[in-house]
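Predict both folds.
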Amino acid sequence: MRSEADLRRLMKTRVEPGELGDAAIASALGRLREHGYLDDAAFAETYARLRQENEKFGVRRVRQDLQHKGVGSELIAETLEARYGQTNEEALAREHLERKRLRKPENEKETARIMRRLVAAGFSTGVIYKILRQWDVPDETLSALDNLEDKLEDGPGEE
């Protein structure tokens, strides 16, 4: 399945430039919509469901992926509210850790690695810190992660 914007982008490379090509794309997309093969709402719902159930991704990651695929922000908000509204983010993060076979970190380097993996999977830093505290990660390590996070937010080369 693909979003309408995704299909439009792919078709644009295969048609002649100009109004004739744009008309061909619009016609093809119109026929796909008419026959029920192209529906951004169904695409967004299916994409979010599969990422939540199979990949155990957090809401931030799914939102970012859907935006990248060209789904409208209003549709994304509705879909994610319906899909993640009643979801326990901490439980989902633990399922993600289990799925990736990530265990309790033994040192600062492993702790940073787990933090990066969970952030990339779309989980909030509050949930990540809660999990790390429950694993009895030393406070010094967590404060080092805070410093690392501040440096990442500032951007490279800024101080």
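Second protein follows, with its predicted structure tokens after the sequence.
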Amino acid sequence: MTINLSRAAMAAAFAVVVALAGALLCDRPAKAAGGIEQSTVSVDGVRAALLTPPHPHAGLVLLAGGDGNIGVGADGSIAREGNQLVRTRAAYAARGFAVLVPDCCVNVAAAVDFMGKFGKVTLVGTSRGTQRAARGIAAGARPARLVLTSGFLSDASGDRDNAIAILGSPDALPPTLIVHHRHDECRKTSPDGVAPFLAWAGGRARVVWLDGGASEGDPCEAFAHHGFNGIDGQVVGVVSGFAAR
């Protein structure tokens, strides 16, 4: 028996096949360079982008600054990529870290627990993400290490809603790295806030000062010294070295 299909029918059938193939592919994590898988996961009901290298040796949870709304898509993409931690997430995965970048406002303890399957977990927050990191630890999150970049650290930083005020005591503070630009001109994250935080931490924290790069636009935004514009590689290197210990 011969079946004759019109061009319209054939086109419709082809469209169905393409749609089904696309649906099947979307269910699978996308592969990035170096065999890194990019996917979206739900952490306590909040979307998060997950980057998984072939053989992860540890996990990172990256908390963006600003309002934390970065627009995580269904395929692991991120709509608002300007934030320093967001734009460098792939560089951490290339160094062998499984990387979780959650949208606002994730349960930090749940995010840390989720990443525990990849090994030791380091919680990294930048700018207002340092406030969220501190609140997470105050609420019971227990990362192996903590990194605060361009942080709201102490009253001398320029904002009373800072890590010291949120935590109250350094007792729950894990080994902590402060990464700060010497010329951060944001009124909320003054370099003057670092020394009081280190004194308060009582030996649990140390600082790495960075310099150089370029400062453009709002001094509290991602392409000023506050966001380590032009020296992303230095930040990634310092944070990775600390997290790998």
